[in-house]
């Protein structure tokens, strides 16, 4: 794995949280993107070399809605950049980690993503993400 690509934060209201994080970080969000297949709307902030993703549920049965219901707002996942997501999934499976989606899916911000089950990672939902390069 490479650097931490971003930290994902579950929020109830994306508009209100965009205002809050703009005050906190001193920069506005640079994009809002909906991932309809995941029932989520995201916004992204850059703060120096760091990236924050805010996640709001768009439907009541989405994973983020369920997370908010159970745990409330807060840090939802940590995403690591990987060079080759397919190889990394194979490596992590070999190490005994449970991969939630073994076939990488299209995530926000031009990424192929996969998640590890938090039960196997001390309660931390880990996202792997590989930048989709234009060919
Ligand atoms: Zn993420």
TrEMBL record:
EC number(s) of the enzyme?
A: 5.1.99.1
UniProt keyword annotations, A-Z? Isomerase, Metal-binding
Among the GO biological process terms of this entry, one is: L-methylmalonyl-CoA metabolic process
Tell me which domain of life the UniProt entry assigns to the organism this sequence originates from.
Answer: Bacteria
Name the Gene Ontology molecular function terms of this record: metal ion binding; methylmalonyl-CoA epimerase activity
Fetch the PROSITE patterns from UniProt: VOC
Domain (VOC) ranges: 3-131
On whether Metal-binding is a keyword of this UniProt record, the answer is yes
Asked if the record carries the keyword Isomerase, the reply is: yes
PANTHER family on file: METHYLMALONYL-COA EPIMERASE, METHYLMALONYL-COA EPIMERASE, MITOCHONDRIAL
The family note in this entry says: Belongs to the methylmalonyl-CoA epimerase family.
What NCBIfam families does UniProt report for this protein, alphabetically? metmalonyl_epim
Q: Which protein is depicted?
A: Methylmalonyl-CoA epimerase
Species, as recorded:
Flagellimonas chongwuensis
Q: Lineage of this protein's species?
A: Bacteria, Pseudomonadati, Bacteroidota, Flavobacteriia, Flavobacteriales
């Amino acid at each position: 794995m490479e650097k931490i690509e971003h930290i994902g934060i579950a929020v109830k209201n994306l508009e209100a949280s965009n205002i809050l994080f703009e005050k906190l970080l001193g920069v506005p969000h640079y994009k809002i993107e909906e991932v309809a297949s995941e029932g989520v709307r995201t916004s992204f902030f850059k703060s120096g070399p760091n990236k924050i993703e805010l996640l709001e549920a768009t439907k009541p049965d989405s994973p983020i809605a369920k997370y908010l219901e159970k745990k409330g707002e807060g840090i939802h996942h940590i995403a690591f950049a990987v060079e080759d997501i397919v190889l990394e999934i194979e490596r992590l499976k070999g190490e005994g980690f449970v991969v939630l989606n073994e076939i990488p899916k299209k995530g926000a911000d031009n990424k192929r993503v996969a998640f590890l089950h938090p039960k196997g990672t001390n309660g931390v939902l880990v996202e792997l993400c590989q930048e989709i390069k234009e060919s």
